[in-house]
Amino acid sequence: MAEYDFDLFVIGAGSGGVRAARMAANLGAKVAIAEERYLGGTCVNVGCVPKKLFVYGSSFGEEFEDASAFGWSSDAPRFDWPTLRDNKTREIERLNGIYEGLLTGPGVEIFETTATFVDPHRLKVGTREVTAAKILIATGSWPTVPSFPGSDLVITSNEAFYLDRFPERVLVVGGGYIAVEFAGIFNGLGAQTTLSYRGELFLRGFDVGIRSFALDEVRKKGIDVRLESNVTQVEKRGDVFKTTFASGETIDTDLVMYATGRTANTKGLDLEQSGVATRSNGSIPVDDEYRTNVPHIYAIGDVIGRAQLTPIAIAEGMCIAYNVFNDESRRINYDLIPTAIFCQPNIGTVGPTEDEARALYPELTVYESSFKPMKHTLSGRDERTLMKILVDGASDRVVATHMCGPDSGEIIQGLAVAITAGATKAQFDATVAIHPTAAEEFVTMRESVR
């Protein structure tokens, strides 16, 4: 590939792009990567990592309250927003440095600027023009806010991580995992929080039993959840935001945050110069090898409109590196993707929902258990946990597990290994329980409920 400046040029240094770049470089390819914002992409900077740190921070309020039942007493705690915000930022800056080392270590050249197409093999990178035999688009996605009167006054999750001051009253609009998670964060940190969603039940796409259970638990935390609720206008009056709903009702808050979706981040790439086709929403269609309609140009991660999850982007990046530069044929199974929602309590899931599983497995058997976590037998907190196991009755194979309760993500990760390996319900039943834990419930459920 000597006729080109690089064997691979990656546009976007998020989780997927960084993994593809460093693995390709380790395999001997000459690689460059361009990133105009920050190394690590959404997950590291304005996504999974800072969000999880905020979830940890927001959980301490309840921990302080529960401590008295276990014999602890202290003065009333006080929350300081700048401490959490700035400690989070320092950790993100540390991770930015780690990502830089991951790239420079194997010899990837980093361009801290935009990259746009000049033609299918040529890119303008800052003031330079470079050529590449293979090009990978890994530019991720970006929060979007619908257009309505006052839409310019609201923030998205991007800005929520860097607020100058913490609000006393917050309206979060949306029904996906980002909206539900941030409602829990704001509420846990002490803000009077309202969550507005236009649909009948939030977290569309997840198991309906888990969604209904989570709704009850979220409301118990004190969040004012308003379903079938549509915002028509936001006005600013001094420091107060007045939001009007289609019902005519209004609410005054100090902050309005929208989490109503993300779109593929393809604007500004001059894709028309490359010949790469896009869908009407800007996402890029690819084949099973992540090739666009231009065979030497690939795309992975959020920008292709599949599962918008960091581990999936990383796995896709691995496929690009090893398939293109090591002559392998790696594939990803998108049917069994474990997922966690860090609302409070957490949700963890792997495999199809109950409704989806019934369509796939006519002899589906459902095992379900709901109980009060052991901790709250002393704390007295009104919080429960729900666990579900879905079994194909014809083969006895466990096809899915779903959970809403503390540490759901930690528990479901191990179960995802078992389900991916094809474990049966009999094998679950034969597994010795770790007692006393919540996780043991997954190997002690014996009676089906449906």
Would you write up a description of this structure?
This protein is an alpha/beta fold and about 450 residues long. It folds into three domains: about 5-140 and about 265-325, 3-Layer(bba) Sandwich (FAD/NAD(P)-binding domain), CATH 3.50.50; about 150-260, FAD/NAD(P)-binding domain (3-Layer(bba) Sandwich), CATH 3.50.50; about 340-445, Enolase-like, domain 1. The chain has twelve helices and 21 strands. The strands form five sheets. Strands 1, 2, 3, 4, 5, 6 and 16 form a seven-stranded mixed beta sheet that branches. Strands 17-18-21-20-19 form a five-stranded antiparallel beta sheet, sandwiched between helices. The longest helix is centred in the N-terminal third of the chain and has 24 residues, at about 80-105. The protein is globular. The chain starts with 5 loop residues before the first strand and ends in a 20-residue tail after the last helix.
Properties at a glance:
450 residues, alpha/beta, FAD/NAD(P)-binding domain, Enolase-like, domain 1, 3 domains, 7-stranded mixed sheet, 12 helices
